[in-house]
Structures are given as structure tokens and as C-alpha cells.
Design a protein that fits this description.
The protein is α+β, with helices and mostly antiparallel strands and 364 residues long. The protein is built from 9 helices and 17 strands.
Length: 364
Amino acid sequence: MKRLPPGIRRFSLPRNTALFLVTAVLLAASCVLTLQFRHRTDHPAASLPAAPAAPASPDAVIRARSGPLHFERIGNPARTIARDRHGTVVATFTDGARTAVLTGPSRTFAEPRTTDAKVVTRSWVRLLPKAWAPGAERSGWFGTWLRSRLGSRDPDILATAFDYLAGAPARKTAAGVGYSGAARYAPGTTGNSGRAQQGKRRTGSDFYDYLGIPWTFPDAVTRRPEKDRARSVDSSGYVRLVYGYRSGFPLNSRDGTAGGGLERTADAIARGRPGVPVLPLTGRRPAVIQQLQPGDLVFFSTRELPGARIGHIGIYLGLDTADHPRFISSRKNAGGPTMGDKGGTSRLDGDGYYAQGLRAARRL
């Protein structure tokens, strides 16, 4: 054993005491490290230099129930689609249009009194707060809007359109205005009549006629309903009722009015500014119609308006269970809104009256 310097005595601790002191020192050091770690994680700016901010990634922010969404661009027409982590398309947004198609719970649209056809669909058609533009998925408003609507069962454009078929329940606002329930095409017609009678004026009934209330438009023009036209809408009045009054799309008081609203007649809507031409108006039946998606407005040439003018408008529903493209509209020979085959088959294919009269389609 090494000899100690003179005057210094060897000192030793009992084994248990030495182990205790070593353990205590280790615990103290551990506590110091833990406190330092907590300080760094609770207040990173106090101990670490700030990292440069990374650009916002929509995939990291916008999530469906199954996980983050991936956005990609496709064409014909130019649009953005959102896919979930399985690659399933859950939303479609078309450049220049406010109409968005979201994938949601399956539902069935039918009208047994006039057709055996059914449309079974997972497409839910909703209006964006503003027209879509490339990159809008990175906008502050978009994530909140999309998350609140994916999977929602609140009525959409298609469900609203069926609020006016024969047998639909009547509903009123708190002020007593009847805003839904079976609609006629014009005075003297009902959903059960074979043919419509001529109205008193060249244009048919608009949405305010159905509602029975005066309506003041953005250009300060006030239209007043005719009493005998209550609960009535012609084809463009029906679209204005569904898309405008019920869903919030702007409305013009008449054709040719400045502004971005839906105009009064089918011909003016087909040639107007709102939305995106999906099937361009050429004066002939389109050769292909695969570009259509539910909610698109479809336009027809009719016997009542010969030549190149558009005389009828409807809302495309999608493929029925027999794979025929089917639409819904308010028409004379059916006495009001229908997706059925009374007064003309409600199909866009084949040799029927409306299939042969199809001239264009527009996505609002």
C-alpha cells in the first residue's frame, strides 16, 4: 500500500455509506440534466437559435379522417383534386368555378312515380366561398371550409333540388315563407298534369314567384310575385331557386345585367360569365359528355325557341343505376321539377328529345 505524506491520516467510509454518497451524486447530476432538458423543450427560443420557417404544406395541415390529403392538378377542364392516403379522390375543385364535388356517404335519388331509374351516388355538391384558383388549397380559409364539409350530411345542391318534386314536404322559414315543397311549372299545372297551360307572360315563373315574396336584387331592382304563380318555377327559375335563393349563388334581376350573378333565362345563363364552360356551346350536340360532373348545369335546344337559342336548363345528377347520364329540371310536360321520364326522358344519351337537344354544360 502507498505511504501517505506525514501528518495525513487515511480516512475510509463504511461500504454502505460510500454507496449512498455515490448514488446521491448521480441523482443530483441527473436532476440538473433533466431541468436543463425541460428548459430547452419548454422554451426553445431561450436556448436554441430560431430555425427558418418552412413553407406551409397543405398535406401536413389539411387532413381527412383517414389521414393527410394530397393535392394534384389535372386537366379537361383544369382543376385540382384531393386524394386521401389510399389514393381515393375525395374532392374536386375546378378553376374559375365555385362548385366543388366532395365524396361523402352514399345516398339514392329516385322518383318512382315517373321512372324506375335511380341515381346512387357518393357525390355531394357544395359551393365554395369564392371561385377556385390554382393553389387555393394553401389559403387560410380553405382548410376550415373543407374540414367542416367532408363527410357532412347537411343538404347540398342535389338534395336541395329534390325539395321541389311532387310529394316533397313543405317547409317554412321563421317568417312563414314557404321555401320548399312540391313546385309547379306554371299556373294551372301540377306534378300530375299531362300538359302545362300557357302562362300569362313570355317568361315563366321565377324563384320569387314560388316564394310569394318581393325580391330586391343587387342592382336595386325589386321584382314582385304574381299571386297565381305561387309555388311555380320554370326551368331557369328552378335553377335560380336551388343555386341562388337556397345555396347563396348571386342572382341578377334580368338578362344582360352587369355583375357575376345568374341571369334570368336559360339562354342567358348558357352564354353568361359565371362559371366555366364544360361542354362549349357550339349549336350542335356535344360529341362526348364524359367531362360532366354532378351539379353541372346542362342546356337544351327546344321546339319553343327555334334556332340557336337555348330554351331549357337542368342540373346534372350523374349516372343512374343503368349507367345512363341523368338530369333533373322543371319542365312543362311534366308539370314541374322531375328526374323522371314523363314529358321526355331525363337522359343525356340516346335518341330522346332532351338527349338530342343537349347543346352545352356549365360548371358554376
